[in-house]
Amino acid sequence: MSTGFHIVVCGSLVPDLLQTLEPVAGPTGPALKNEMMLPAVLDPWAGHALFEAAHLAAKHPGSKVWLVSLGPKAKLQQLMMSIAQKVPFELVAIDGSASGFTDPVEVAAALAGAIEKIPTLDRSRLLLFGGCASASRDAGVTVQMVGERLGITDQFLAADEVKVGADGTLTVLERVEGGQYLVSEVVGPPCAIAWATGNLPEPPNNPQVGMQNMRTLMPSLQKAQLAALSAQGGTFVSVEVPKQERKTRIVKDVPLDEMARDIAEWIKG
Questions:
Q1: Strands across the sheet containing 126-131
Q2: CATH value at residue 125
Q3: Rounded to 5 degrees, what are φ and ψ at 174?
Q4: pLDDT tens, residue by residue, 19-36
């Protein structure tokens, strides 16, 4: 395609996956203990979407990638410092909670509203990308609802691969039940694609890409609009960190059947 694509990736931060998360009752509803102090990373599924978008844009001249991120502005700034050198994109920042307790309907409304305000976006060339799930907001419906709000009816919600034909036709490899794929063809944009894993590894850091992205990152963060998201309706009764338990018994000359029986009884107990 000579005109290229306008690819909008919806993706934000999540707490580092190695951290222990403890829910607490906050002033506006459920929240995470010391949430603003937790180290944050780019959501893994959103990362797949972003890297696939950048790869697709690089192969088709005239394409452009936007990253629309909803999260606390200070945390978004920290996140951008770590991913800005990966791939070229223009950031559209929304200042709001990135907690897993937010309602996906409200999140989708905020994301769609920000996308609609992108001044140079051509809807006829729009590819809406995002993760099929999230490490924090694992509702699995956010990309679908953003697409619906933007009037995009061609949606693929667990894609692993997208190929572009010479005539601009998109061939999407989408996961279905039984470990199989549904191969779909769509004549072209607009369409929404929620990525499962993709096929690309995380790109290496490129300082030149980082300098290019920095021209838009800070202005976008400074003018980020506040999204008022509530966590009303979500409750929890109790929570505790899983306990580590180890019981060791040293024996000799025990038949294998008896050992297996003892292990099975211990697991059931």
A1: 181-186, 170-175, 155-164, 191-195, 126-131, 6-10, 64-71, 90-95, 225-226
A2: 3.40.50.620
A3: -120, 135
A4: 777 777 777 667 777 777
